[in-house]
Amino acid sequence: MERMRRLWVNLFGDWFRLSRRFSPALLDEMAAAIAAGERTHLGEIRFAVESRLAPADVLGGLDAPTRARQLFTQLRVWDTEHNSGVLLYVLMAEHRIEVVADRGIAAKVPAEAWSAICARMRECYAGGEWRAGSLAGIAAASALLERHFPGDGRANPDELPDRPVLL
User: Fold this and answer.
1) What are φ and ψ of residue 47, in 5° steps?
2) Fewer CB atoms near the end CB (10 Å): N or C, the chain?
3) What's the farthest any 2 CA atoms get from each other in the chain?
């Protein structure tokens, strides 16, 4: 039953509004927020938004947490000097938000902190506040990275692209 519901929302949900909710101007603003945050810490943040999953993937059992982990690997978020990469993943069709943190930062931040970020973003998105939710998620992840991987005053090399990925 759950798989059929997921299949339905991935086929017929409002996933087609991706470009309206994440306009080029918002993507620019998000990239600037990620870059600004990365000047204060030694972490790397990636933001990925996926409109929907393919029907065959849903029928095969692929869910948002698994897909987020796949993207964490594909986008090379794990490949940072301090093992402090963080992926913020949004699956629009299923209204799911996942955070995947590399082992360096995951060892220092409890799962509840990442869940709180997801809850805040979800609350904003539910109210149609896509900009506020996205920027809040980026700011909260940056704050955790700054607390646990503070910058050392030198320029932090930008190891990963700052611009969000739309899939």
Assistant:
1) -125, 125
2) N
3) 54
